[in-house]
Design a protein that fits this description.
Chain B: It is found in: Nucleus, Nucleolus; Nucleus, Nucleoplasm. The complex is a heterodimer. Chain A is of the alpha+beta class. Chain A contains 21 helices and 33 strands. In chain A, a hairpin with an 8-residue loop joins strand 10 and strand 11. By secondary structure, chain B is mainly β. Classes of the chains: A alpha+beta, B mainly beta.
């Protein structure tokens, strides 16, 4: 509706020529005008102007009502507004408007020749109707345009006159060359063709140029094809525009500046309104936004510019990295990841109490001991003397405070920086899983028999190979032969000296006992067992093979073979081998032809090997490698084991060379025993240890057993059962399972089985010798208590 | 709770195989806590009503001697208190009484009784013959080494024949004229290569077997005239006899030999086996492996069981009828040391005696594995041999140079009568 109304109004304005339209009549012509409008101004956008008008109108609603009542025309309100203003001095206003309008016309429309002459009011109408430009101007001055319309009569009259002259083209704002081919140039208001004015040729032009003094100021209006004569004002304007000056000649460029808004900063606030509360509160939405961004950063959906930059950098260039960590860097990381905590102090105990229980207080002895260690305070069990006070109040100042602080500081300063990894291993787990002794039967478990009869400590015992008899040698200078099954002493053979060692010949075909007594080695026929064998042995020993072997002086001075004296013959002694030093040990070779003796004092002639059949002796070693303790023949190979105090040397008797040297790492070897298969050697030492050597494995002990509480005197392997026994000064005989497997990959299994402790202690000595029964799982032990005991 | 306190009542049936002591088969309710003493009093009270004399009884519950309280016994055997329990009672075997002590010059390693004579072998290489009254009849030197075993071959009123074995590797057969008290060495049996540890004469007195340290078992003729051999002549002249049969099989010393019948021999050895030999086949019939050295073994014809002595203080009971294996029927633990000798009673089915190195003889009932019936004290040293061939006397020799004679009082009456 607003549109229509504006259209109406606009349409009305040019109409006055035809009729004097009253306000009431407007509605009648509405449709026609509409159509006309549509044709005339298809692109006109007057809505803006009118919109503003409307708003303006709605603001002053009272006026509107008043106007509408008065005139019955909605449009009247603006008019009324202006009317109120301008009723008094309407004419003056008009004049002013005209002036201004003229100016504008000059600016906007070059072609309005007649507008100069025309009233100010129709000019704007023309402008509006013919062209849509200068919308801004219109919006600025709607009032001005309208004012002349309302006091309608004089205006219409003026317009009538001007209308006649004015042949307006209605083609609109189109390129006029479209009409170049036609005779007409457009259509006038009445839809009549506007015929092009006759176009003179060049001669005409020339003539006119000559004739017309105003030719230079004559321009052609492209819209109408009419010639327009520019006024002086126009020319002045053009000139001003050409010279880039402000077109309005009245504009004073140099007028004094009026400072409507001061440029100086005021010290005092202009307004005294306090800041709104909102301005102090952080914005919730901002906060939300920030938190969303933070979350995105965290999740990695978003990256900071720094990161983006870095990524770009990485993408761009080659990558470099440290091949080796520096030491300092590692230390740095360790401090972060694996800090060493300060060492903890022990919690105070009862002794630290100011009022300790009486048992914590030192008695005299303890006090003395504590004071005695004055020079070596670190040896004291407590670094202070527990003291009792009646009450906490009575406790004096702590005199050691500074010192303890200092020590604590030292602790912290000197605490080990390396962290010791604590292994949380159950001790049970480390103990090898051994079979139960119950599964390893048979082995001796109880003392069965005691062989009594000796009057001094029994040094040595040996069993007959068949296992019926037993021989023992004692410090009471006797050798006794016992029946094992009953404990009956069958024979006692007196010798002249302490019997250090006895050894029954392992060859069952011979009935000989070798007895080391003093510096003499007696070969005794025990006269037990097979009579035939006894006789054969006697025959064998009776005659000395007269081999003219030239013995070296060295051997001659060391050993002398001789037949026994008649009185000794009666006792059973057959051959006497006199040595130059006391004999400590005698041992047989497995076949019973060779036997070896040890004289610890014999220097480089300590070990001797005697051959029975040839009655010959040899000194295998020319140099002394140490104090020889004992010797041993290998059960199978021609090897000879020599134990000095610390080490064991194994010699090949055929090649006469050292095969191996076993390192015992002990202070004093007391005895040896070799496994019947010959691959394992058991060594007893006076420093409470037993060493198991696997000869194939290493020169160091395969296992070190600390089973005894005192010096181990003797060890022995059983010939048939996987058993070995050891006798010690702690009066115990310990029986162990020592399984050697045929599979070379399997290590020997050693299981201590039974501790048999029935010997009595005498002069710090307990068990002196242990021997196994050759057949039964029985072990014999001799002790300082003058007895031999059998454990079954 | 009742069970715990032993206060519960138990219903019992009293039974016996001895007719003269039979009581009516009526269930009795008795306290669970009763022991042998109370049961004895109770039973005697029952019997006294019949006018019998007071007798001591032993009570067997489920074939085992009652030794403590009845409830304990039942609990151990896991027998319900609810059931009625059958208690068998037997006249208690009377305690053997030490009767005599026969002093020797040396250890007595072998004893054998027959009739009223006791034959002993001594470590001083002599044999001795004693009467039960303790009268020394004869000392027989002859062996050159300690005697290890003796056995009677035959004994009648005029003559006695016996065999002895020694560590001198021989067995000697002797003939003893009782009237003249003269003894003659019939023959010397040579063949063993080491000491002969055991000897036993066959039930028909035709042969005897010896076991030795040379692991051989040899069978010899026990006849006066060893006929039918090529060497008979020479043997007769020299008095030397050679074995009829040599059986090899043991790996160690044979410590025990006993005839099971005329053709079957039982041997026990240090090599942990018992072997039953069939002499017809001249081979091993059965072998029982044990895990201990056997020092003595005894076979009872009455119950076909073998009891063995070994070094681990235990006596073990084996069944001779088992073909293979070593199932120990029961173990009798009572000795404190090496058990050297064991022998079944030849009349009582369940009784045997043992001698050990703890200086004790023990009388066992094989139904009472926990404790012996009686300890026969007296020896001051190791017991080396024990004999119960004469049911009236238990004879043992020991390392205290004595032979102890224990008289079983059951036999006393009869013995007195015979005298």
């Amino acid at each position: 509706m607003t549109k229509k109304r504006t259209v109406k109004r606009k349409v009305k304005e040019p109409e006055p020529t035809k009729e004097q339209p009253s306000v009431s009549e407007q509605s009648d012509n509405e449709e026609d005008e509409d159509l006309l409008q549509a044709v005339k101004d298809p692109g006109e956008d007057t809505t803006d102007d009118e919109g503003i008008d409307q708003e303006y109108q709605s603001d002053s609603s009272e006026d509107l009502e008043f106007e509408s009542d008065e005139e019955g025309n909605y449009l009247g309100r603006k008019v009324s507004n202006e009317a109120e203003e301008g009723e008094d001095d309407q004419d003056e206003d008009d004049d002013e408007d005209e002036d201004e309008g003229e100016d504008e016309d000059d600016d906007s429309d070059d072609d309005s020749e007649e507008s100069d002459a025309d009233d100010a009011s129709p000019t704007p109408k023309d402008d509006q109707s013919s062209s849509s430009k200068a919308a801004a101007a219109q919006t600025k001055e709607p009032i001005i345009q309208i004012i002349p319309r309302d006091p309608s009569k004089p205006e219409y009259e003026e317009s009538d006159t001007s209308d006649e002259e004015d042949i307006r083209n209605t083609v609109g704002n189109i390129p006029m060359h479209w009409y170049d081919e036609y005779k007409h140039i457009g259509y006038d208001w009445d839809a009549k063709k506007i015929i092009k004015p006759p176009k003179g040729d060049q001669i005409d032009d020339f003539l006119r140029k000559i004739e017309d003094p105003n030719f230079w100021r004559t321009v052609k209006d492209p819209m109408t094809g009419q010639e327009v004569l520019l006024t002086d004002e126009d020319i002045a304007l053009i000139k001003r525009v050409n010279s880039s000056r402000i077109p309005n000649p009245e504009h004073d460029e140099y007028a004094p500046w009026i400072e409507w808004f001061t440029s100086e900063v005021e010290k005092m606030p202009i307004k005294n309104v306090p800041d709104h509360k909102r301005s102090f509160l952080p914005s919730v939405s901002e906060k939300k936004k920030v938190s969303r961004m933070v979350h995105a950063l965290k999740m990695g959906w978003m990256k900071t510019t720094e990161e983006v930059e870095r990524e770009k950098q990485q993408k761009r260039g080659p990558k470099f990295y440290m091949l080796w960590e520096t030491d300092t860097g590692r230390e740095h990381m360790r401090r972060i990841h694996d800090p060493v905590s300060a060492p903890k102090r022990d919690l105070p105990g009862h002794a630290e109490s100011y009022n300790p229980p009486p048992e914590y207080l030192f008695d005299e002895k303890e006090t003395k001991e504590w004071l005695k260690l004055k020079d070596e305070p670190h040896k004291r069990k407590l670094h202070f003397m527990p003291q009792k006070y009646k009450s906490l109040r009575a406790v004096p100042a702590y005199s050691r405070y500074l010192r303890e602080r200092f020590l604590r500081c030292l602790d912290l300063y000197l605490c080990p920086r390396a962290k010791r990894v604590k292994l949380n291993i159950d001790a049970e787990y480390l103990i090898p899983k051994l079979p139960s002794p119950r599964d390893l039967q048979p082995f001796p478990t109880v003392e069965s028999l005691v062989y009594r009869g000796h009057t001094d400590l029994v040094r040595s015992v040996s069993v007959e190979p068949k296992g019926e008899y037993l021989v023992s040698g004692s410090d009471d200078k006797t050798v006794k032969i016992w029946e094992i099954a009953t404990g009956r002493c069958i024979r006692t053979i007196e010798t002249n000296d302490v019997v250090r060692c006895v050894a029954w010949c392992p060859n069952a075909k011979l009935s000989i006992i070798a007895v080391a007594t003093g510096s003499r080695l007696l070969l005794i026929n025990p006269k037990v067992g097979d009579k035939l064998l006894i006789k054969k042995t006697d025959d064998l020993l009776a005659e000395s093979p007269n081999l003219d072997v030239i013995e070296s002086e060295r051997i001659k001075t060391a050993v002398q073979w001789s037949n026994a004296e008649p009185d000794e013959q009666e006792k059973g002694v057959r051959v006497v081998i006199t040595h130059f030093k006391p004999i400590r040990q005698v041992t047989w070779h497995g076949r019973g032809d060779y036997l070896a003796t040890v004289m610890p004092e014999g220097a480089n002639r300590s070990a001797l090997i005697h051959q029975l059949s040839k009655r010959r002796s040899q000194i295998p070693f020319s140099k002394s490698k140490g104090l020889i303790q004992c010797v041993l023949f290998h059960p199978v190979k021609p090897c000879f084991f020599v134990a000095t105090q610390h080490n064991i040397r194994i010699y090949d008797l055929v090649k006469q060379e050292l095969i191996k040297k076993l390192l015992t790492n002990s202070k004093w070897i007391s005895g040896m025993s070799i496994h019947p298969k010959g691959d394992n050697l058991l060594v007893s030492t006076y420093d409470k240890k037993m060493l198991w050597f696997d000869l194939d494995l290493s020169t160091k002990p395969y296992q070190t057993m600390r089973l005894h509480r005192n010096a181990v005197r003797s060890v022995a392997f059983h010939l048939r059962y996987p058993l070995f026994a050891s006798g010690s000064d702690d009066q115990a005989v310990i029986v162990s399972h020592g399984m050697v497997y045929n599979d070379l990959l399997q290590n020997p299994l050693i299981v201590p089985l039974k501790k048999l402790q029935t010997h009595e202690k005498r002069d710090e000595f307990g068990v002196l010798d242990v021997t196994w029964h050759p057949v039964q799982p029985w072990v014999f032990s001799t002790g300082a208590d003058c007895t031999i005991r059998l454990y079954t | 709770m009742e069970v715990e306190n032993g206060e519960g009542q138990v219903q019992v049936h009293l039974k016996t195989k001895q007719e003269q002591y039979a009581v009516p088969d009526v269930p009795y309710a008795i306290e669970g806590s009763v022991s042998t003493t109370e049961l004895n009093i109770f039973l005697n009270a029952l019997l006294q009503s019949k006018g019998a004399e007071s007798v001591d009884f032993d009570f067997l519950v489920f074939d085992e001697y009652l030794r403590g309280r009845l409830c304990d016994h039942l609990r151990e055997k896991a027998i319900s208190f609810e059931d009625s329990i059958e208690i068998e009672y037997v006249e208690r075997f009377p305690a053997p009484e030490p009767q005599d002590c026969l002093l020797h010059d040396d250890w007595v390693s072998a004893v054998k009784a027959s009739g009223k004579w006791i034959l002993t072998g001594c470590y001083d290489n002599t044999l001795n013959i004693w009467t039960y009254k303790g009268k020394h009849k004869l000392t027989i030197p002859g062996h050159t080494a300690p005697i290890k075993a003796v056995d009677w071959i035959s004994l009648d009123n005029e003559n006695g024949r016996f065999v002895s074995t020694s560590q001198d590797q021989t067995a000697m057969m002797w003939q003893w004229n009782i009237a003249s008290n003269a003894v003659e060495c019939v023959s010397v049996c040579k063949g063993h290569e080491r000491g002969v540890d055991s000897v036993c004469v066959s039930p028909d007195a035709q042969r005897f077997a010896t076991g030795s340290w040379d692991t051989m078992l040899k069978i010899w003729s026990a006849e006066l005239e060893d006929a039918g051999e090529s060497t008979a002549k020479r043997a007769k002249e020299s008095g030397v006899r050679t074995p009829r049969m040599t059986l090899q099989g043991h790996r160690e010393s044979i410590s025990a030999v006993q005839w099971m019948d005329n053709n079957t021999l039982l041997t026990g050895s240090w090599d942990h086996t018992l072997k039953v030999w069939d002499l017809n086949l001249e081979g091993i019939k059965t072998e029982i492996s044990t895990n201990k050295s056997i020092f003595d073994a005894s076979y009872s014809k009455l119950n076909n069981l073998i009891v063995t002595a070994s070094a681990d203080k235990n006596l073990r009971l084996y069944d001779a009828r088992t073909n293979q294996g070593s199932v120990v029927r029961s173990t009798y633990l009572g000795h404190n040391a090496w058990v050297q000798t064991v022998m079944w009673s030849i009349t009582e089915e369940f009784l045997f005696v043992s001698g050990a190195y703890d200086n004790q003889n023990k009388l066992w009932d094989c139904r009472s594995p926990k404790a012996p019936l009686y300890d026969l004290l007296g020896h001051g040293e190791k017991v080396l041999d024990i004999d119960w061939s004469n049911p009236k006397y238990i004879v043992s020799g020991g390392a205290d140079n004595t032979v102890r004679v224990f008289k079983s009082s059951k036999a006393t009456v009869e013995n007195m009568e015979t005298k």
